[in-house]
Amino acid sequence: MAVTNWDVVRPIVKARAAFCPALDGGRRAMMSTAVDARSNGHSAKTYGNPLGIECESCKRRALVPLDRLGQLDSNMRPLRGWPFKCSACGSREVAPWLFPVDADVLAFAVARGWLELSPDAHSVRVTAKGSRVVQ
Question: What is the H or E stretch that residue 11 is in?
Answer without folding.
Answer: helix 6-19
